[in-house]
Amino acid sequence: MKQPSKRVLVTGATGFTGGALAKKLVERGDHVVALVRKGANIAPLEQLGVELVFGDITDADAVSKAAQGVQIIYHIAAVFRTAGHPDEYYEAVNIGGVKHVIDAARTHNVARTVHCSTIGVHGDIEELPSNEESPFNPGDIYQRTKLAGEQLFAKAMDDGLPGSIFRPGAIYGPGDLRLLKMFKQIKRGFFPLFGGGTNLYHLSYIDDLTDGIILCGEHPNALGQRFILCSNEYGTLKDLAATIASQLGVKAPTFAPPIGPLMLAAKACEALCRPLGIDPPLHTRRVEFFVKSRAFDNSKAREMIGYQPKISTREGVKRTIKWYQDNDLL
């Protein structure tokens, strides 16, 4: 039986995850409203017939205007680790933006609000695979402000706001550009596995993720809960690189230089550049990609709300490569 259409608000709809979510909601028959900043690439949303409300997540009045008459809010907007932003901007978006969404949901009696957090709130922890109750250990301004935003939202749920929280794994798939550099390096035959590539890496394919996000917005068991949304499988960075190489028809990376010199170089770059207000060409967090293990347990989402990731890493990599090639990126 087809579900009746809903009027829903998606923040962050010009981004990768928010855009994919908006597209899926439109395709299933929902009326999607998107809060978008002036100057953003709105063409894909216009083609979908999304209703656009211009404004910024840091503007309480704009958020409230966008939330009028909606039944569900999917709050995806956030500021990531991009160059040149002061700490105050992360706080304004990743914490202040959450407060504006909470206030708008309360003002307009929104039936359900879903908040996008990050598995990064767990930081670098020893317990693997981690779950929703694992310790918090944020490692940078992005992770710290995302944790503060999640805790603000959790407090609102405790105080009666009908909602849920999800923490996605490393999101990838057609449309994503964050892993493009890795794919390009592997295709060229030079992707150094610093430290050996034995650290664990856990992905979340975009189509599976958006299915999970919608479950957070509609399943009765999701109310008041936090869920990790990620693939059913994870493996080492070396295994992921080999899978990408296999799908590209090239040799799997084997060069494994030590991590120490690279980390020292990254720390030196940060020490020299930050006092000058320059974004370092090499960050310690980029080096940590090669050493930090990230593996998670999605059983709570599977058991409570019927979350069912369908795309294997091999199939997801295959589809991502095709999209890169179709768009002359790889």
Automatic annotation (TrEMBL):
Pathway: Bacterial outer membrane biogenesis; LPS O-antigen biosynthesis. InterPro entries: Epimerase_deHydtase (IPR001509), NAD(P)-bd_dom_sf (IPR036291). Residues 8-223 form the NAD-dependent epimerase/dehydratase domain. Pfam families: Epimerase. Belongs to the NAD(P)-dependent epimerase/dehydratase family. This is Nucleoside-diphosphate-sugar epimerase. It comes from Arenicella xantha. The lineage of its organism: Bacteria, Pseudomonadati, Pseudomonadota, Gammaproteobacteria, Arenicellales.
